UniProtKB/TrEMBL annotation:
InterPro entries from the UniProt entry: Acyl_CoA_acyltransferase (IPR016181), GNAT_dom (IPR000182)
Species of provenance: Saccharibacillus endophyticus
Annotated transmembrane regions: none
PROSITE patterns: GNAT
Protein name: N-acetyltransferase domain-containing protein
Domain N-acetyltransferase: residue ranges: 2-150
Pfam families: Acetyltransf_9
Domain of life: Bacteria
Amino acid sequence: MTTFRLLETRELTDAAQLSNSVFRPDIQPTMADMFPRLFAPGVIQSYGAFTEEGTLAAFMGLAPSTLRIGGAASLRAFSMGSVLTAPEHRGAGLAGELLNLCIAHTQKAEAPLLFISGERSLYTRAGSAYFGRAAKAILRRSIDASSAATDSSVPAQPSVRLRLAEPQDLLHVHHLHELNDTRFEESAAGLGELLGAAAYCNVLGLAQLTVVAENQNGLAAYAVIGVPHPIRSALQSSSMPSSEIQPETSNPATVISYGGDAQNTANLIHALPDFCRLDELHVEIPWQDQALETLLEQKGAELQSIRNGGTLLVTDIRLMLEQAYDLWPLPWEEALRVDADGRVFATTSNRELSRTEWYGTLFDPNYPRPGDIPIWFDPIPLPNPYGLHYI
């Protein structure tokens, strides 16, 4: 008989080893290195399916977080990842049972949002769906940056200079992170843990760097960026990256996270291709960062509209609306009504909204607004889950 339950501390090593065997066989760093919030001892949130002999047959990782939304509201959330079943136990429905337990766990924790780094039918059958949109900015090297990597401090704009971050910069970087109106809330130590883990960069097969921009007042912006490994090595050794470097991954250099006011952040990101000698750099910009999007477009970035990464399961829509109430000038009940079964209705017309319709209304600013939803009922801005907090 299979047992489904929370993992115990002594079982985390087995979970990490099983995860490595499925996702990163003979690849460094390990899953435990990349995802300490799933595999390090602490208050464990993750679930496993165990055989009668006590062997871990399937695993579903959960990590909790608090989201600061629009500078006002605070939402509780979980992120799900490292979902796997050992090959010899596949086809027995273990993942479905674990998913039910994880959803119940989030509901008991009063966390109405579950970010999922996947779009399998396992998730969509439970109600998970695509959510919201972002802009992808593509920047290209525009000048001969032959001296960029040989100098530890390279001009980005007349009043801003770029350099690689040092350990002593962590508190300043954390302060800039906290200035983002919409973000995963994080302590300075927690931010340092995530920077060290470099989870999403490793998933992309890229090496992680943190670059800061300084002005006369100190650190003005930062960007966490994934680049080909030879480029990171060259930058860290203050040598010039070769223009003949062939990346070992098909993924382009990518900005994973950023912080600072829009102008300084735009100056920093715009200068990164030259500073790192990158032919191309991609940046995903959540829809609410419209000022940054506009500034980068003015600087020549190519913009594309994309879906947010992964899927989102709203486990309790009423609770989500109650936690997000500070976003709107009027009570949310004047826009939507939620019945005891979780069905959603437009308040003024009493018309029931489909899941697709209320997901679009709640998370996507480009979704055609139904005529019976008031204009003041703005979409809920969410941070990018495919960044430093990727699970």
